[in-house]
Amino acid sequence: MELSFTQGRWNYEKWGGFDPISSNNAKPPGVELWAVFDVPQDQVDASWRNLTHTLSGLFCASINFLESSTMYSAPQWSFRPATGNIRYGMLPREAVCTENLTPWLKLLPCRDKAGISALMDRPSIYRSFYHSQRLHLISNKSGPEGMNPGIVLEQVLTVVLQPNSQRTGMTFSGEKNVQPSWSLSSIFGRKVSGKCVLAKSSNVYLQLERALVAKLKKNKNKGADNIASEGFWSETGFELSVRPDRVFEEENNSHRKDSSVLFEFSVDKYSDSQPFDLGLTWKFPVIWSCKPAPLHASRFLMGSGNERGAIAILLKSADLHDASLGTCSSSDGYKFRVDVFQVVPWYVKVYYHTLQLYVNGQPKAVGDVIEKIHVSPSKDKISPGVMEMVLQFPCDVKSAVLTLEFDKGFLHIDEYPPDANQGFDIPSAAISFPNFYTSLFFPGNGSVDKSPVLMKFQEKNPVLSYTEVLLVPLTTPDFSMPYNVITITCTVFALYFGSLLNVLRRRVNEEERLLKSKAGKTTRLSRLLSKLSAKLRRKPQETPETPSNSSSFISSKLLLKIFLVAVLAVAWQYYFE
């Protein structure tokens, strides 16, 4: 099982794609989960649902959304050597934050309190260009290489950080691609105060790739025999702040004249009083970039409008002759293999029979390029569309384009996400190159226990790249219409019930009672004056008229108002029905 949380996209052109770190640890944006189940076929989907709910609660994420059959697929051959009942799912829009990193750190023996994990400063990690936390579980039944049978847990955090010089805008001679000087305290804001007490060993490795070693040799006119010699880290174009404990030079590299160099620093001897703070200072500007993959893969959309479109996958050649490991020769008619794995949501209805291929700008027949293909068309609200292809290209290929047409479906209003106007994501496609392997062999210099990092570098894994996540705009309804209906309905009901309650609670003789109470409060002097004036004018005293006529008029007026409101309410309800 493998689970990854990724923020940002790996830049294969600048950060490399032909080395074990980028090929194994560069993941697509969002959440990626795949697992192989050792259960009967009819129990695989139920086990997958249980797994997604468990991981969702453990890592405080929305992984439980992958339980739906519309969100995962069952690849046939795209995840070799993993065989069996495999399930694969992605959530491209899943946000990654500290609430996902904290459970991941809790799985470490000392969390982030001691050892190398103490460098994991949250602000430094989350303002980086790219970061990906990966969790890999392997069931080790036979116990190879001296390992006891059980479950092997592997945790990897891949981060592309911003050096201090780039944060402050300081570079050599205004060059953007110049390698900056750095230190652990400058990029992480922390130092290492020794190893975790539960760890068997704790080491920091610094690798100089082949191209960088060749450039340093060229600048300093050093021979190949000085690569791993004493003083190499201080006499060349850079200087290390800490003396390395061991220096490894890559072996079995006959196809190249230069080999990569690996420095090992043990943090066992450091403490709080003398923390470990590795730093590298360049003595002169060095412009260098990592080796890219044999073919740079990118994906984009074609067409316009909210009805139809097309998906295009572009493969552009890199420096293939240097990356081919001496196995690809166009003169012998040899072809190298490219595997494509793509999952499309069900509401993007792909027409797989419209597949077209262009090699070096020229259209090619599907049978001339595709060795085998497996297509699983999508089913509405049941399963996504899956396409797996094995392509064979000549060694001198410069570019290749694959296009597929599609229609955009319609969703029920309850199926739209809260930010539907932003668009819908199509997960990244996986492009692998089985003929090209990323493995580095560094001798152990007679050491009995070889480092797990060195053993990981020796694994022969094919080069793997991920394309961009596509954003597809779909036709969205007017989400404000329910709000308008609710508003006007509530207004009508408020007027109706307000008038009804006003009529029901009003007292009809309230005005007469108020007049009588007001008259009763008249002073005795006013009554005497009125009697005296009546006697002087020799007229009887006038009595106030009874408001019976006015009361009857008011009552009829209220009844008419109630009748009109009731008629209006009945008409309104009949209109909406």
Automatic annotation (TrEMBL):
One GO process term, biological-process aspect: attachment of GPI anchor to protein
Top-level division of the source organism's lineage: Eukaryota
Protein name from the UniProt record: GPI transamidase component PIG-T
Pfam families recorded: Gpi16
InterPro entries: PIG-T
Bilayer-crossing regions: 483-504, 558-576
Record has Membrane as a keyword: yes
Organism placement in taxonomy: Eukaryota, Viridiplantae, Streptophyta, Embryophyta, Tracheophyta
GO CC, any one term: GPI-anchor transamidase complex
Alphabetical UniProt keywords: Membrane, Transmembrane, Transmembrane helix
